[in-house]
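DM between two lab members

TW: hey, do you still have the Xaa-Pro dipeptidyl-peptidase entry open?
JB: yeah, one sec
JB: this one, 791 aa:
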Amino acid sequence: MPYYQFAKQLTPISDPVADLKRLRFITDADVKLTDANQLWRHLLQRVAVHTPTAASFETWLGQWLANPTLDLATWLNQATPVTNTIFTRVSCQLLGFEPGRDFDLTDPSTFLTTSKLTLPLGDEPLTPSALLTNFFWLLLTRGKNGQTLLDTLTGEGYLAWSYALPATQKPLLFNGQPTANFDPAQFINEVVFVETDVDTDQDGHADLIKVEITRPLDSNQGLQIPAIFTASPYNQGTNDEWGDELMHNVDQPLTHVNPDYQAPQEPAFAPPTTHQRVNGTREQATETFANTPRYTLNDYLLARGYASVYAAGIGTKDSDGRQTCGSPEQTAAMQAVVEWLHGDRTAFTDRTSGIAIQANWCNGRVAMTGRSYLGTLATAVATTGVPGLAAIIAEAGITNWYDYYRENGLVMAPDTFQGEDADVLAAETYSTTRNPARALADHVANENYLAQMRQAQDRTTGQYNAFWAARNYHPHLSQIKADVMVVHGLNDWNVKPNHAKALWEALQKLPGDHKLILHQGQHIYINAFPSLDFNEMVNLWLAEKLWQFPNQAGQLLPDLITQSNLTPGVWQPVSTWQAPLIPTALGHQMITINDQQADATATTWRHQPLTWFNSLLNDTDHHFSYRVTIPRHASWLAGTPTLTVRLKSNHNVGMLSAYLVDHGTAKRLTTTPQLINRHGLQLGYHWHTDDLRDFKLQNQPTERHVIAFGHTNLQNPTGPTSFHDLQADEWVTITMPLQPVMHELAADHELELILFGTDYRMSFRGNQALTYTIDLSQSSLALPWTDFSLQ
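TW: and the structure you got?
JB:
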């Protein structure tokens, strides 16, 4: 497996010798040594964390091989000068790689090339200065366990001595990154209640929301630290069974939308009439908590001096209000947490006493993190331009809730969540149910609110309306002032890639330092991959954004990184996610697609959508679809394809679906990371762990893989805000974007476009007697062909 380390670059505030001295790997006396072998022995003693005696250290040295015939202890006793090659042989073993299995001890060069490990080779004797430089870079090199040697030593307790340092001397930096100098056993766990400016339960009082904070004790001792804030409506629990009960029926027909149709309006929330009176202040919180659902990236950062802050927001356990699913009120409530951390808002030590508390421990700089709903709210809060929010890391975040639950005039489910909608998600995350007395008192009002939401979201037509406009962040993206790191899966059919694409395109027009990482996964986190140094990149980046250390992370880290879809573990910078579109005609003939199936077939497909999916991919005889082979213009597709189709329906309703398919038999990458080592990642010393995992090739080859798709209502020929009063047998020209792609087409593969009607995995599936006639001579597909070279 290759190990890509984009953060492994010398920062301008780092000096290898000074950094090694700072972390006590060397002393002033070591720097003066003229014998490289003696210096190496001293460095190895630091690496051998659990060998306190000379005898145990000699035993430890005897575990490693210096060459194919001698262990390291014997070799050192011979006083043969250390060379780059000897250093690298031993280094590979210290990094967890096994001679004979992972690399050739005689000639490790091939292994170094394939693994992307930048370790030196050569037979010239090393000088002490060169040895120190080698050791500096070795500490920053990732091993087989997916961590740098420094992080591995940290997990073994090497830096425990630094816990006793004065708080104002922390964090200790190594190559411009904070290190784990904070004792997890002394972390403070506290609760505050932030007062918002919204009143979503309409009791007249400003909603209070519960905030859970974990921070180093040092932040009580004169060290002001930045905050990592994760806004997670799931944090206080979910109502999964209730959500299942509320799932909507999708086995129903498409209906014609009349031009005069008016969607029900969502009632507005009246602002609060009162705020809680401040009756006094305290320096320390009075309430605490035991456990909270955690994001392991936050835990990694917490051990390195960042505070970890979680809030579930309005409509959750121990907070006031309603779950409003992406509304401006939900954004404002999470914005209030940032304002408190920045020193601009009031919080209380409990819900009723009126005792105010400030975040005096915080340096006023905040980053928001999280995936899915969590990344969504990070983006939403960023669009407010709130002071104090210096950065966000938005992973698989929604940028427009219409595009999550709808598409071009159609009700369209996120993958595997057929029947879910905004009202269902609101009910699932309404963890007020975990306070039975409050839930009972609020039951009727909350049910009424959900009923109003159910009407306003309009599943009857799927049209864009005021409800969805209020939950569309696109018009506000220009107000983002924070630096943004976007992370998204190219195979995410839940929060689809067009959300990341919209955010990325908006960021290109804004000042600031913005990054994009595209991976080959579905709806996942990527911070536990051995092949990518995501944790180190984030630590380096946030050191600049939040600690304001001038490490130039923004200049050192690539702006756009993508993962290869052909070779496991390959990540490379690329220049663009929108190559120029090259149009291709789809043919010359008229073709017909019959959407209705036999009742037995439709029933099977409704209950087994994967069976339908496989039937579609193998429908080469055009029983219910039509496919076109698309000529190749380059090796890569990078951007958003655009499909134009001239067609008619035999009724005054209809929908067109399209899949773009990579056709060619191959073992493809898994879209879900595969477990490598459970609890294999140490996030600190006597601290949390994470499971080491990464993408691998599938065990069995597959013939086709869908790389992009799109759907449109024929009454919305050019997008969700366009509308046409469709008549039966009326020719219309539809233009729709497919999901954006970043995909390399193998040399022996070809590209296919599949056109069809009902999508049993995502759309309504009424099995209507619909027949579509398509004029291929008036239809085309514009594709973003380009050439990259990933190694």
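TW: got it. Residues 226 and 306 are 5 Å apart (CA to CA). The domain at 582-786 is CATH 2.60.120.260 (Jelly Rolls).
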